[in-house]
Amino acid sequence: MFCLPGLSWIFLSALLHTVAPWGAHQPERPKQCDAPKSQSDMNSFLWRIKRAPPHPPSYLFGTIHVPYTRVWDFIPDRSKQAFHSSHNVFFELDLTDSLTILKLTSCQLLPHGENLQTLLPRDLYRRLKRHLDYVKHMMPYWMTADQRRRGLYADYLFNAIAGNWERKRPVWVMLMVNSLTEWDVRSRGTPVLDLFLAQEAERMGKVTGAGGALWRSSVTPSTGSTSLR
């Protein structure tokens, strides 16, 4: 999983600041909160598996399912070099396969006959519905000119992200709501990091595959891994 360096420290620092007595001495900000000054200071989330010569090493790279443009600049050069030099690349899921996408979509749904209105407390369900109505209203204002030139329209984008939301499992609804921001709507259509790497691997002629089995109840919704050889 890839995350911005120091994110947890920033949250903790902000939380403690709210309860500190007014006028209390503020300690110097921890170095973990500072942006990396060089590539060598960045956490690569890349593990190397050494093998006896003459076999080359293998690598395990942690990823996250967000638009690659959101994190690509924070991925260190050594991780990118390992990807480019590898002959075989294996992913958690084959996101280029339509059957995988179909199964992934299916596993998000509640069992037949169930819906969120019967599962969630009434007040929470009403808040969720009001928020989604607000997002649907704002969708035309959030779209980019490029999206419109490509023939996309607001209702299509909303349904692509939130369609059939009342039938989805709560954890997937939580992730859906998290992605219904102006920034995420504007970046809709940009491949997530896993898919971008898979497309790049195919373009470079690398051997690709998927190592994760897609089970109905055990799909990891937000993180993944990539194996490089």
Automatic annotation (TrEMBL):
Signal peptide limits: 1-24
Keyword Protease among UniProt keywords: yes
Any coiled-coil regions, as ranges: none
Pfam families per UniProt: TraB_PrgY_gumN
Primary location group: membrane
A single GO BP: negative regulation of Wnt signaling pathway
Note accompanying the cofactor annotation: Divalent metal cations. Mn(2+) or Co(2+).
Family: Belongs to the TIKI family.
Function: Metalloprotease that acts as a negative regulator of the Wnt signaling pathway by mediating the cleavage of the N-terminal residues of a subset of Wnt proteins. Following cleavage, Wnt proteins become oxidized and form large disulfide-bond oligomers, leading to their inactivation.
Record protein name field: Metalloprotease TIKI
Organism: Collichthys lucidus (Big head croaker)
